[in-house]
Design brief:
Layout (H helix, E strand, L loop, with lengths): L2 H26 L10 H7 L6 E8 L5 E2 L4 E7 L4 E7 L11 E8 L5 E11 L2 E3 H10 L6 E4 L2 E4 L5 E4 L11
Parallel strand pairs: 4-6
Antiparallel strand pairs: 1-3, 1-5, 2-3, 3-4, 5-6, 6-10, 7-9, 8-9
C-alpha cells in the first residue's frame, strides 16, 4: 500500500466514525429537540412517569388553585387535551389564567405534571415598566400601547417569548 492509499484509508475511516457518532447523537436527541410538548402530544406518546420534559400550552381559566407554602395547581390545555400541573414556588409576574405557559418537570404516577420550573409566555412587544416610563418621559410614548401586569404590552399579535420565574425575559441582560 502506498503512502497516498494509507492516507486515504485513514481519512475515509475517520469520516465513517464521525458520521456514525453524529448519527448516534441525533438518534439519542430525537425526542429532545422539540422545545416543549403539548398535552395532546403527551397523551399520544404515552410518556412514562419520571421522564423529564417541557410542557407548553394555555393555563385553563378557573383552574388555578393556590395552596400552602407557595404550592399551586392549574391545568394546561392546548385545545384538544388538558393536563393537571402542580408547582411549588414563586410564579412569574406574567403568569395568569388564559395566558401561555411552559413548565419543565415530569409526570408522576397519578398523571399529574410535577413542575420545578414555570415560564410565562408573552409576545415580542412586551416592554418592562421602567422602559415604558422612560419612553413617557422622553415623549416617545404611543397611545396604542396598553398596560398589562408589571410591564407594558403593545396591541397586536406577535410571536410568544418566555419569561423566567424571576420575571427576567430570557436573553435579557441584567
Amino acid at each position: 500500500m502506498t503512502r497516498k492509499q494509507r492516507r486515504m484509508t485513514i481519512i475515509g475511516g475517520s469520516l465513517t466514525v464521525l458520521a456514525l457518532a453524529a448519527a448516534l447523537v441525533l438518534n439519542a436527541l430525537r425526542d429532545s429537540i422539540v422545545f416543549f410538548s403539548t398535552p395532546t402530544m403527551v397523551a399520544e406518546k404515552h410518556v412514562e412517569p419520571g421522564k423529564r420534559f417541557r410542557l407548553g400550552g394555555l393555563v385553563q381559566p378557573g383552574s388555578l388553585q393556590r395552596g400552602d407554602n407557595l404550592a399551586v395547581t392549574f391545568e394546561v390545555a392546548d385545545g384538544n387535551a388538558k393536563l393537571p400541573v402542580a408547582f411549588k414556588g414563586i410564579l412569574p409576574d406574567l403568569f395568569r389564567e388564559g395566558q401561555g405557559v411552559v413548565a419543565e418537570g415530569a409526570l408522576d404516577a397519578n398523571g399529574v405534571f410535577k413542575a420545578d420550573t414555570v415560564l410565562a409566555k408573552h409576545d415580542e412587544t412586551y416592554m418592562p415598566k421602567d422602559v415604558a416610563d422612560a419612553l413617557k418621559k422622553q415623549g416617545h410614548w404611543k397611545d396604542d400601547y396598553g398596560t398589562q401586569g408589571s410591564g407594558t404590552q403593545a396591541s397586536g399579535a406577535a410571536t410568544p417569548a418566555a419569561t423566567t420565574a424571576q420575571g427576567n425575559p430570557q436573553g435579557a441582560v441584567r
